[in-house]
Structure to design on (291 residues):
């Protein structure tokens, strides 16, 4: 079995790395946050003191970091993966980042004989814990095939969507649908509440019909229970919406719904809610409607 390095043990990376340990892989890990490293070491991993050391000790290096600058720093920066990785090793970036940055990283690694795929995920913390994430991949068929057994330890599905960057284009598409669905759900439940109808009755009545969705089932019960712990931070969804708008401008696609939801999330961030779950979009509507 290949020795795997894992960098970024946050809300998603921690359970994903634990699933690799459960599957029997030997794991070397690194994160700035010593507390999460300790927890994964308790589960059987070995700690490294830098991303470079992770790469030196692994054949496959997985990164699960917030955004493009973090991945660039960890992979290409001082004491980073590129300085330590052996020729022929594979870097699998599972973070959600800008597709252009994935391509840039892929090119710089390829120039040193290191392979790269982008493999962002959907499903959030519950599916990261269960190992049932949906994984969207960009890269060569050969690198995808070789990575598949590892990806399958973390996900229920892994689909090759195209060359390097295609995984992150797919993830941006996913994030448009999720953001707009959460906004629609918040708008609908706020209307029902203000019109005097119990939102839970509305949810139970509509969830089996055309308005039913994975987003509605995942988020409506949490909103009604006033549970806004992340999950997926509003700040991270703003990051994705920024990458969505940038990509839309690059390729010439107007994105009016994404722009609106981004401004709603931005208003919540300014109001001090950036570290709440993106289901907290309901708070924006409740404030507008004085619920
Ligand atoms: P997080 O902020 O909880 O975790 C990020 C981790 O990276 C932290 O532990 C942080 O200490 C570490 N880190 C940051 N910079 C580092 C560096 N230079 N070196 C070492 N470690 C560093 O974020 P998360 O929620 O786990 O999300 C990670 C990625 O997955 C993001 O791109 C996010 O958009 C995506 N994602 C998240 C969810 C979700 O529900 N949380 C779902 C799907 C995709």
């Amino acid at each position: 079995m290949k020795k795997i390095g894992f960098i970024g043990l946050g809300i998603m990376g921690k359970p994903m790395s634990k699933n690799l340990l459960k599957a029997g892989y030997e794991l070397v890990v690194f994160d700035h946050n010593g507390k999460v490293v300790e927890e994964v070491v308790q589960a059987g991993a070995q700690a490294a003191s830098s991303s470079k050391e992770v790469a030196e000790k692994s054949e496959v290096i997985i990164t699960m970091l917030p955004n493009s600058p973090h991945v660039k720093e960890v992979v290409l920066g001082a004491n980073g993966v590129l300085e330590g990785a052996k020729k022929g090793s594979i870097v699998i970036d599972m973070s959600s980042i800008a597709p252009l940055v994935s391509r840039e990283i892929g090119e710089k690694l390829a120039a040193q004989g290191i392979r790269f795929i982008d493999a962002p995920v959907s499903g959030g913390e519950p599916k990261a814990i269960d190992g049932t994430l949906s994984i969207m991949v960009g890269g060569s068929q050969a690198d995808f095939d070789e990575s598949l057994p590892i990806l399958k330890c973390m996900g229920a599905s892994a689909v090759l969507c195209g060359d390097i960057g295609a995984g992150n284009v797919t993830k941006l598409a996913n994030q448009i649908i999720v953001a707009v669905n959460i906004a629609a759900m918040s708008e609908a439940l706020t209307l029902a509440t203000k019109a005097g109808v119990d939102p839970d009755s509305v949810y139970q009545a509509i969830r089996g019909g055309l308005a039913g969705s994975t987003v509605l089932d995942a988020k409506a019960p949490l909103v009604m229970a006033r549970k806004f712990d992340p999950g997926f931070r509003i700040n991270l969804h703003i990051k994705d919406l920024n990458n969505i708008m940038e990509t839309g401008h690059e390729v010439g696609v107007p994105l009016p719904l994404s722009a609106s939801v981004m401004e709603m999330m931005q208003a919540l961030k300014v109001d001090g809610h950036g570290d709440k779950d993106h289901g907290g979009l309901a708070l924006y509507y409740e404030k507008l409607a004085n619920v």
Notes: DSSP finds 14 helices and nine strands in the chain. The pocket of nicotinamide-adenine-dinucleotide is lined by residues 7-13, 30-33, 36, 64-66, 70, 73-74, 95-96, 121-122, 124-125, 231-232, 236 (CB under 6 Å).
